[in-house]
Design goal:
41% helix; 4 domains; binds zinc ion; 500 residues; 19% strand; alpha+beta; Hect, E3 ligase catalytic domain fold; 3-stranded mixed beta sheet; 17 helices
Length: 500
């Protein structure tokens, strides 16, 4: 495609009421183009309608922006800069789009050559570069986004197969048994299960990866069948495949095109709220501005306690002085082993000590046995924190919505850049406060079906195991050793349950 010189013409009225028609402007523009870029084709974009600068509809202007985004334009000319765009913010946006299209200069008859980058340097004083980039991406992708119409991209997606709708258009059709797995994965994640653990559970149920791999022989050659086609085998389900099952916009009935999201033509498997919440848990790593003004990535759920043992942090306590036991590595015979003790560092008096591994194994064993009993399950304390968690999550989502509203207001010139920044700063502070609070709310372990814990235990990580224990165990009291006993004595250990 040969790129062309774009002449942007707009009828306008000058201060004296004199109308400058587009025909005259076209003559000036063609003359300029002929002198400056001899031989290059010229295309005219003319808005032949006098209208105010606020909210005016300018089809040719929009067409020019689309042509810029499409890489069709080599040079741009207008009789003067304000003819192209007189609104300051919009001009900055257009300057960014020109720059993105590789057009570094705007040629005019009255303002000379306007160097676009200089203008962008100006906007950088107001906004940071990332904002400019986002703005630019948002705008230039708009047309492509509409073109996408929410039709599916190629490729296989777990939960769907390719299909055709009533109108003959491409769509996706839900595969019910896969959709059921997706919904289950979402439930488990929201109940606090780790992706690794969910993957393990699904593998045990015979779920395999979406991709079917080619089989290779011992020499590394692809094995082929009688018709010469590669023989394929199931692939092992991976944790990242499980994550993408539930975070993929496709399952929420969304079509994403170059970072923009449009409603898709197919049906969703997960409700938008559920999908949002799952992504909050798994992928919503966002850049936020810290108190120090620096930006950093945050993931909403950062629950690593940094603890190394199951019963520390107040669960295991001294049966004599009631202080929390600490656990340290201690030389026992020829091995270093975890050892829980009533330690002066935590206010204890050294009253009791007990070898860690058998203590932990005992508590876990009793807990798993109890979880098998209907009467124990019936007496479990309810999760008192669900409501608070939901409130915080809703508030966080509200902050995101407000951010978008602010950006829209700013872009519509309903507020100044200073006001915008101040408002955003306020939102950032609220967000930090909410995220900190969310991290303090106990995780929703009791929403996990307790009957599944035994099967899931081997695949749980330490934090998850600690969470499980603190959900069901109120405290573990360790009494003094009876003189003369050797080895682990479970009679020294009392377990109190979190029952209502
Ligand atoms: Zn003690």
């Amino acid at each position: 495609m040969t790129r062309y010189v774009a002449l942007y013409l707009r009828i306008s009225e000058d201060k004296t009421g004199r109308v400058e028609g587009v025909k005259a402007q076209e003559r000036w523009g063609r003359a300029y183009a002929g002198r400056t870029w001899p031989g290059l084709p010229v295309k005219v974009f003319a808005d032949n309608d006098i209208s105010a600068s606020n909210g005016d509809r300018r089809p040719a202007y929009e067409a020019l922006r689309e042509a810029l985004a499409g890489g069709e334009v080599a040079h741009v000319w207008a009789v003067e800069q304000s003819r192209l765009e007189r609104r300051e913010v919009e001009w900055f946006r257009l300057a960014a789009e020109l720059d993105a299209a590789g057009i570094t200069e705007l040629h005019t008859n009255r303002d000379g050559i306007v160097r676009v980058r200089d203008e962008i340097a100006g906007i950088k004083a107001v906004l940071n570069a990332a904002e400019v980039r986002k703005l630019r991406e948002r705008v230039t992708d708009k047309m492509a986004e509409i073109a996408a119409e929410g039709r599916p991209a190629g490729g296989s997606v777990f939960g769907y197969r390719a299909g055709v709708d009533d109108g003959g258009g491409k769509t996706l059709v839900i595969v019910e048994e896969q959709a059921a797995i997706i919904r289950e994965v979402a439930d488990w994640l929201l109940a606090g299960w780790s992706p690794a653990r969910i993957t393990e559970t699904l593998r045990d149920c015979g779920v395999v990866g979406v991709v079917r791999r080619r089989v290779r022989d011992a020499a590394g050659e692809v094995v082929k069948d009688a018709e010469g086609r590669a023989v394929r085998r199931d692939s092992r389900l991976t944790t990242s495949a499980v994550k993408s099952m539930v975070t993929n916009p496709v399952v929420a009935g969304l079509r994403v095109h170059k970072g923009h999201t449009v409603p898709a033509v197919w049906s969703a498997i997960l409700d938008r709220d559920v999908w949002d919440a799952v992504r909050d848990r798994l992928t919503a790593v966002r850049t936020v501005e810290g108190r120090d003004g620096r930006t950093r990535e945050v993931s909403p759920i950062q629950r690593h306690t940094g603890r190394r043992y199951l019963l520390t942090g107040g669960t295991a306590r001294c049966g004599i002085c009631d202080m929390p036991l600490v656990c340290v590595e201690r030389q026992i015979r020829s091995h270093r082993k975890p050892y829980y003790q009533c330690h002066p560092n935590r206010g204890g008096k050294g009253c009791v000590g007990i070898v860690g591994d058998p203590l932990e194994a005992h508590v876990v064993g009793v807990l798993l046995d109890e979880l098998d009993k209907p009467e124990f399950l019936a007496a479990l304390a309810a999760d008192d924190h669900t409501q608070r968690r939901d409130e915080i999550t809703t508030a966080l989502r509200g902050i995101d919505a407000q951010r978008n509203d602010l950006a829209a207001m700013w872009s519509a010139q309903e507020m100044t850049a200073d006001e915008w920044r101040t408002a955003r700063h306020g939102l950032t502070q609220s967000e930090q406060r909410l995220r900190a609070e969310l991290a303090e709310v106990p995780p929703p372990m009791s929403r996990v079906d307790p009957r599944q814990i035994r099967a899931a235990w081997p695949a749980m990580n330490l934090d998850e195991r600690r969470e499980t224990i603190s959900t069901y165990v109120e405290r573990v009291t360790v009494k003094r050793a009876k003189p003369g006993t050797a080895g682990f004595d479970e009679g020294r250990v009392d377990i109190e349950w979190q029952t209502r």
